[in-house]
């Protein structure tokens, strides 16, 4: 294969139906950058954009944002859309309660707060008081609270934050009564929570980036579990666990509720193993509890009898097993709740019960079992949707949220004895949910596999092929797309749009077989499933190519990029967000190597390199005059999970190619990362741009804009 001849040119296109011409910034190319993959030479002329510290990259970002900002600002109803989104987000959102040391806690957002606030209650009927307000940690709301953990004696609490959307974490410790900060401050933690034990806590971290290395793009290796003792400097923290033989493994600690056991999780992507230390033993040391790294597993709870573990080993749809506390050998495990027809999506202990959430065709169905594995009853949810359950082995109080595409998160309490639920809070929004409906349909993919898809739209929809439709997908990493609420889709629905969510292979909707069928050299199945969804929507006259858009983020950004390369004729608009676009080099940045379990790597084998190269969004952009849809690429300058270089290089290549007159622009958010913890103000701005771009390029004229 000869190096691709990618030449930066100044393209001139027509921006949608606007009369003004859109000029892209010229992007410098370096023709000498060529990689060899088992004999295949692949050019990478925009390699210089991988340097997120360079002044040249910063100038390129500034120039690109100038173009995209000008385009998006000219969308006639963009301001009205932002106003409508602001009104829709102005409602009280709360989380289910959780109980710690005799007090109740929950998160609440009064509507437009950038970050949700943690509240404390003495009882469920007492007045809530602010416990921790992350909005006070930064002036612009870009410091996000990741989690809070209380010491066993209730005297202290530790909280984990991230800044500007980065995956890097900091940990602070405060006195629970006075909220006075202690001197203890942990930096360079990553993928961590806080697990208290005695007078300190465990956390996970990498070494600080070396001099000259970018903290946002440098490869992360040698993840460690450390123990911090209160009142001592971080430099004195003890390394509790590390594995120098496997620099690309993740490690984390978990302390049992009775403080008897410390568990160490070792992961290399999808699967993990578990080590255990019994602190009551005469000479406590770690021993293998679950040996294999090939299957997902996790400790659910412990009691005087056993350690309970949910596992996918020999159970692709997962099961609950127990290992006796007096015989901590893997061979001593026995089954408590066997694998069922439906996926065991989650298991929690609630007092002397287990709550098992099963997924049935991508909808949650929680059931309650006793500790012997006998089914007691199913928790009756209000409809098809998602449930978020809050419970603890230490008490029998259970709280849960329920949401669907048109139902915002209502909060319920559960009577664990008789299974009855009591509504605690139901948010009210400035839209009429009764005007909309959600249906689930089944279609057939290219190889004959049946795939399901949710369609949400106004009641009384006419299937005339003219309905604006947004197709959303993910299809990877064993992640399931169950119905949940987000106000961002409401203006699109109100304007007559159809919101379609396809449950593609690669996800967890039907267990490990469904996940595995969309990985490595079966990844094309995911794209085929997405393409088949678009074809079905067109065939069944829900929509047509001129009225159809697609959207996805992260692995879903990869999905969108690959799909519009393969079938650009199906869509009028596409929005790949924070996407993995360079499949040949993704593993070289931060924790990209962790995705190899789903993707494979370009250095694995000739066959794997060829497979990746055949669909990599960056490397398959057509330069032959093929009409591409309008494309809005989004990323954040602090995204250290999928580094922005993926989107930078993809945008430069797309703009330089001859892909038709529709706009190809990139929106690069400042002080923003992969998405987690993004301030609400930034979210609303981004949603206004994304949905404004989609609706504008689908020719929509929303009534709320008049």
Description:
The protein is an alpha+beta fold and 706 residues long. It has a domain of 348 residues: 3-Layer(aba) Sandwich (Rossmann fold). Helix content is 16%, strand content 34%. Strands 34-35-37-36-38-39-40-41 form an eight-stranded mixed sheet, with helices on both faces. Helix 2 crosses helix 10 and helix 5 crosses helix 6. The chain is globular and about 75 Å long.
CATH level-four homologous superfamily name of one domain: Alpha/Beta hydrolase fold, catalytic domain
Topology-level CATH name of one domain: Rossmann fold
* Quaternary organisation: single chain
Tell me what the CATH architecture of one domain is: 3-Layer(aba) Sandwich
Distance between the termini: 54 Å
Tell me the radius of gyration: 25 Å
Low-confidence stretches: 1-20
Mean pLDDT over all positions: 93
Got a strand count? Answer: 41
Helix content: 10-25%
Structural category is alpha+beta
CATH class of one domain: Alpha Beta
Tell me the strand percentage band: 25-35%
The profile of the biggest β sheet is: 8 strands, mixed
The number of helical runs is 10
Taken from the alpha-carbon principal axes, the silhouette is globular
**Widest sheet: strand ordering:** 34-35-37-36-38-39-40-41
In summary, what is this structure?
The chain is an alpha+beta fold and 706 residues long. The chain has ten helices and 41 strands. The strands form ten sheets. An eight-stranded mixed sheet has the order 34-35-37-36-38-39-40-41, sandwiched between helices.
Write the layout of secondary structure elements.
Elements: E1 12-14, E2 21-23, E3 34-37, E4 40-43, H1 55-73, H2 78-89, E5 93-94, E6 98-100, E7 103-109, E8 117-121, E9 129-132, E10 143-150, E11 156-163, E12 168-175, E13 181-190, E14 195-197, E15 200-205, E16 224-229, E17 238-241, E18 250-255, E19 261-267, E20 272-278, E21 287-290, E22 297-302, E23 306-311, E24 319-324, E25 334-337, E26 343-350, E27 353-359, E28 364-370, E29 375-378, E30 386-392, E31 395-403, E32 410-414, E33 421-425, E34 436-444, E35 450-458, E36 469-472, H3 490-494, E37 498-502, H4 512-516, H5 524-539, E38 548-553, H6 555-566, E39 573-577, H7 596-599, H8 606-615, E40 630-636, H9 645-656, E41 664-669, H10 680-697
Parallel strand pairs: 36-37, 36-38, 38-39, 39-40, 40-41
Antiparallel strand pairs: 1-2, 3-4, 5-7, 6-7, 7-8, 8-9, 10-11, 11-12, 12-13, 14-15, 15-16, 16-17, 18-19, 19-20, 20-21, 22-23, 23-24, 24-25, 26-27, 27-28, 28-29, 30-31, 31-32, 32-33, 34-35, 35-37
């Amino acid at each position: 294969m000869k190096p691709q001849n990618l030449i930066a040119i100044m393209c001139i296109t027509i921006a949608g139906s606007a009369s003004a011409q859109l000029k892209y910034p010229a992007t410098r190319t370096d023709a000498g950058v060529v990689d060899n993959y088992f004999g295949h030479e692949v050019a990478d002329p925009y390699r210089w954009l991988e340097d997120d510290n360079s002044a040249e990259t910063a100038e390129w970002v500034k120039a690109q944002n100038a173009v995209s900002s000008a385009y998006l600002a000219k969308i006639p109803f963009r301001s009205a859309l932002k106003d409508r989104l602001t009104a829709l987000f102005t409602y009280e959102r709360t989380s289910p309660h959780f109980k710690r040391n005799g007090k109740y806690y929950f998160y609440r957002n009064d509507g437009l707060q950038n970050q949700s606030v943690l509240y404390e209650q003495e009882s469920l009927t007492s007045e809530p008081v602010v416990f921790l307000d992350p909005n006070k940690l930064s002036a612009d709301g870009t410091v996000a609270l990741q989690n809070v953990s209380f010491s066993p004696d209730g005297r202290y609490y530790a909280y984990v934050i991230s800044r500007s959307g980065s995956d890097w974490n900091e940990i602070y410790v405060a006195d629970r009564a006075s909220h006075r900060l202690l001197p203890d401050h942990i930096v360079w933690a990553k993928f961590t929570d806080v697990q208290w034990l005695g007078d300190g806590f465990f956390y996970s971290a990498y070494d600080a980036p070396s001099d000259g290395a970018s903290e946002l793009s440098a490869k992360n290796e040698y993840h460690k579990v450390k123990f911090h003792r209160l009142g001592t400097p971080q430099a004195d923290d003890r390394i509790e666990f590390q594995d120098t033989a496997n620099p690309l493994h993740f490690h984390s600690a978990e302390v049992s509720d009775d403080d008897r056991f410390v568990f160490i999780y070792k992961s290399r992507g999808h699967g993990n193993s578990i080590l255990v230390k019994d602190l009551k033993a005469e000479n406590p040391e770690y021993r293998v509890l679950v040996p294999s790294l090939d299957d997902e597993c996790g400790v659910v709870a412990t009691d005087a009898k056993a350690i309970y573990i949910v596992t996918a080993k020999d159970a692709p749809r997962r099961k609950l097993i127990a290992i006796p506390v007096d015989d901590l050998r893997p061979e001593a495990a026995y089954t408590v709740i066997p694998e069922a027809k439906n996926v065991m999506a989650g298991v929690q202990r609630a007092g002397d019960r287990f709550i098992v959430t099963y997924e049935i065709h991508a909808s949650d169905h929680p059931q309650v079992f006793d500790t012997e594995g006998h089914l007691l009853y199913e928790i009756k949810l209000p409809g098809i949707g998602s449930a978020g359950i809050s419970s603890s082995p230490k008490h029998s109080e259970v709280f849960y949220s329920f949401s669907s595409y048109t139902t915002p998160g209502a909060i319920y309490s559960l009577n664990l004895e008789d299974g009855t639920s009591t509504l605690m809070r139901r948010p009210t929004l400035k839209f009429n949910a009764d005007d909309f409906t959600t249906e689930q349909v089944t279609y057939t993919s290219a190889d004959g596999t049946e795939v399901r898809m949710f369609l949400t739209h106004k009641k009384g929809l006419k299937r005339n092929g003219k309905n604006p439709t947004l197709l959303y997908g993910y299809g990877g990493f064993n992640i399931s797309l169950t119905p949940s609420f987000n106000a961002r889709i409401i203006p699109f629905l109100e304007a007559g749009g159809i919101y379609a969510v396809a449950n593609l292979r690669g996800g967890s909707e039907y267990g490990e077989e469904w996940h595995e069928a969309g990985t490595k050299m079966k990844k094309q199945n995911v794209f085929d499933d997405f393409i088949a969804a678009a074809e079905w929507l067109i065939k069944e006259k829900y929509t047509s190519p001129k009225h159809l858009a697609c959207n996805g983020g992260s692995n879903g950004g990869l999905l969108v990029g690959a799909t519009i390369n393969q079938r650009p004729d199906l869509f009028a608009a596409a929005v790949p967000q924070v996407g993995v676009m360079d499949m040949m080099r993704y593993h070289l940045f931060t924790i990209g190597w962790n995705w190899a379990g789903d993707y494979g790597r370009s250095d694995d084998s000739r066959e794997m390199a060829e497979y990746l190269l055949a669909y990599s969004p960056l490397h398959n952009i057509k330069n032959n005059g093929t009409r591409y849809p309008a494309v809005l690429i989004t990323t954040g300058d602090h995204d250290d999970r999928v580094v922005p270089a993926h989107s930078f290089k993809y945008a430069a290549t797309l703009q330089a190619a001859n892909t038709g007159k529709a706009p190809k622009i990139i929106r690069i958010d400042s002080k923003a990362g992969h998405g987690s913890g993004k301030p609400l103000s930034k979210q609303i701005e981004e949603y206004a741009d994304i949905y404004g771009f989609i609706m504008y390029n689908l020719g929509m004229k929303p009534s709320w804009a008049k």
